[in-house]
Design brief:
8 strands; 5 helices; 4-stranded antiparallel beta sheet; 29% helix; disordered N terminus; alpha+beta; Nuclear Transport Factor 2, Chain: A
């Protein structure tokens, strides 16, 4: 063997010996609890996890059922008039607050602000869900019955009056943002 190869082998053996010797040393300071590694933004945007898909589909389901995430006592209206019943919203005081909550999970253009304005009334510093003479939650999705169609897409079972519609699904795409995963687009059956 030539001298260069012998020096390389000696260096490898020395390094291995140092590493093995260090593995038996006691640490003199407390170790910091290991934090999960933050994925770099390119890696994070490559594939959405199943838990995030389910969560986002549950958020979108409340848009389709016209509650938009409002928590109300639906069996007990706060007041009524000739056209509608009004239910006090417990988890928001303004339409802007409801919209801000939804925008954490839904990208711009996924739902219409007009829909919020048509379903809610701000009065005397409180927010009320408005329920009049039309069907609410007529169609929707089953957020627990979905399948992945790509790294950033899924389809969810489409429902009418809570029942699955055979062969019909809503298609979703997702996007990574600074706030986390969001629904980027939705395609509902016609």
């Amino acid at each position: 063997m030539n001298t260069k190869v012998l020096k390389q082998i000696a260096a490898i053996i020395t390094t291995a010996g140092l590493l093995l010797g260090m593995s038996g040393c006691k640490k003199t300071q407390n170790a910091v609890p290991e934090q999960p590694a933050e994925p770099d933004s390119a890696e994070a945007a490559d594939r959405i996890d199943d838990e995030s898909i389910t969560k986002l589909l549950k958020v979108y389901a409340v848009v389709l059922d016209d509650t938009f995430g409002a928590e109300c006592d639906w069996g007990n209206p706060s007041f009524t008039d000739d056209l509608a019943s009004y239910y006090e919203v417990k988890n928001a005081n303004t339409i802007d607050e409801l919209e801000a909550d939804l925008k954490q999970y839904l990208a711009d253009g996924v739902f219409d602000r007009k829909a919020l304005e048509n379903n809610f009334l701000e009065k005397d510093g409180k927010l009320y869900a408005v329920r009049g003479g039309r069907g609410y939650g007529y169609y929707g999705i089953d957020p627990d019955n979905w399948e992945r169609t790509g790294d950033l897409s899924a389809s969810a079972q489409f429902t009418i009056l809570g029942d699955a519609v055979e062969g019909e699904s809503a298609e979703f795409t997702f996007v990574s943002s600074e706030e986390g995963w969001k629904v980027q687009s939705v395609s509902l059956p016609e």
